Amino acid sequence: MTAGGRGAPARVVVVEDSLVQRANLVAVLEADGDIKVVGEATTAIEAIELVASLRPDVVTLDLNIPDGGGQYALEQIMANTPTPVLVLSSTVYDDASGPAVAALFGGALVAIPKPVRWTPAFESELRRSVRTIRSVPVVRHIRGRLRSRPSAPATTSLPPLATTSSSPPSAPMSWRPAKDTKSCVVAIAASTGGPPALATVIKGLAKLTAPVLIVQHIHPDFVQGLVDWMARISPLPVVLAQHGETLRSACIHIGPGGTHLRIGRDWKIELVETPMTVHCPSADQLFESVAVRAGENGVGVVLTGMGDDGAAGLAAMHRCGARTIAQDQATSAVYGMPRAAQRLGVVDQQLPLPAIANAIVRAVHARSSARS
Fold this sequence. Notes:
The chain is 34% helix and 17% strand. It contains eleven helices and 14 strands. It has helices at 19-29, 44-54, 70-80, 98-106, 120-134, 194-203, 223-233, 283-294, 311-319, 337-343, 353-371; strands at 10-15, 35-41, 58-61, 85-89, 110-113, 185-190, 212-216, 238-240, 252-254, 260-263, 269-272, 298-302, 323-327, 349-351. Strands 8-9-7-6-12-13-14 form a seven-stranded parallel sheet, with helices on both faces. α2 (44-54) runs parallel beside α3 (70-80) and α9 crosses α10 (337-343). The chain is elongated and about 65 Å long.
């Protein structure tokens, strides 16, 4: 048995070209006995081949590595050997920086700065993150199959997303508007670790008939990239939410960055910059507007994320009789937002990520059937 009786150690491949940093990282990861480094790579090509051969539980990845760069390695790993990836790099300043967002779009679950000085608190948090993402389901990304190896290391900007013939068409005129305030509506919020979690949920919504609104805490410059990614894998149309647009049934509306996404009168989308909040867009603002406009016909979902945004708004929905769902701790990259809602006692269902899409579809169907 390992430390704490957790069973088999988490098998990790470390990708880091600095010998000193790599040795330190291995020692830090293995300190508690429940994480085992089974392979070490120093270049992108080595990392891709090593992950394919060893099939580890987790990969820690530096972005500034030779032979194509960490972003290239990440995209190839997620296209060919999908594995939970934790990016640990000096090019990452925070979870909204360009390299971090590009890594999240590429399929990484977590992107954190490499510390200038390693502290016991950081080391402990790093090990906790590895344990957490070990069990998170990951989504295969086709982007890695569409890109050849770059001639230089990955840059700090998000590469353009390639389009394929399988991409959903642009907004068809036949989309149905949501009829009235008695219609069902689904609101989903996510933060850290959110893009791959959203991809998992969205892929399972093929039978959904209600409009969906999504708030993802992300830098405004990268929202369109998120929309493009979700549109490629979604069975439903995915659009960037527009102010004044009427909600459309069986359509996914993703909120822009830097403005709150709300439902206004006549079932129209509102994009507003006030009130001033820590997060903009705010999950609380979205959920509270759904509580007012949809009442018991709303379905609120909180996915992985840091902090407590969404808890108060989900409470408002819960008081109105809406169905409320939160991602469980085992499958959350960061169990902050779901935990905050759970502690308020306003979560009807706490579910692992793969079960959430089906729960949403069932909740909408139940509410639609009750009205008919």
